[in-house]
């Protein structure tokens, strides 16, 4: 997994330049990476598969279908993969080692890496690091916005304004409520920090929790086995977990039933966490007073999907982040990991196979 001891160390930027300020901004970042060490050469050769294919590849049931529609590499992409020792990417071709025999390290663009792992990185012995944390502040602010929007009845106020009707709509306070967090990575840690300012009680459930464990800005920690107990104590639940075999369908009918009547659910992690028919049923029956989703099991969401018309559901379109801030955070993370890689130091955000 170490870079070559002699000769150039070839790194490739594969993500679309438009996501990170355009070609000039990406070229400037490439120059800054090359300035870290005279051995480094940075290629810019975008490879993007699109959200639909990315979602398929992130789902265990969708890998075969994704292979059938995966794009063929261009000559320029083949040439870049053939030379690359390290890449920064949102997507990778299947069987990447056949295209990139020298590849030793992949820096992911997002916190989730399921679609990258289907490229055969483990089998080829390629190290993978994620961009966990680069989106945390922007997404946490989005979550707080959704909580305030729902509690302060902003949509209803806007509807009254559109009808020119003076109709007072009184909201309720966030202070004194109990918010349960599913997952306590960088995003929900940032949510917890912000909830403390609103004087809410914050609970969190994470896999690594042990009896007596504590965490900053969290009033009580629960192991995954006690998820339903935490759900039962929560007025509001915020989910922000990566996709793993353990998280797929975790929020099912039983989980929603464990939430108190009239509670509110938010998901900004991965859409596969949620049994969507069970969520729609809980909303339709009024068991949940509402929900907000930034992610779905299918992305883009088909126009005929029942989530569009689910009652008291606010949808956004995998856009809760703030791209400008994320770009700067991502580039700083990659630069630090490049420095560590070249120096033989421990990398940040290494993803276990």
Provide keyphrases for this structure:
353 residues, 14 helices, 36% helix
Structure description:
With 353 residues, the chain is an alpha/beta fold. Helices cover 36% and strands 15% of the residues. The chain contains 14 helices and twelve strands. The chain has helices spanning 23-34, 51-58, 63-69, 75-83, 96-99, 114-117, 121-124, 136-151, 154-162, 186-197, 227-232, 253-258, 276-284, 323-343, and strands at residues 9-13, 40-44, 86-89, 105-108, 127-129, 178-182, 201-205, 220-222, 236-239, 263-267, 288-293, 313-315. The strands form two sheets. Strands 8-7-6-9-10-11-12 form a seven-stranded parallel sheet. The chain has a five-stranded parallel sheet with strand order 2-1-3-4-5, with helices on both faces. The longest helix is centred in the last third of the chain and has 21 residues, at 323-343. The radius of gyration is 22 Å and the shape is elongated. The two termini are 14 Å apart. 42% of the residues are buried. The model has no long low-confidence stretch (mean pLDDT 94).
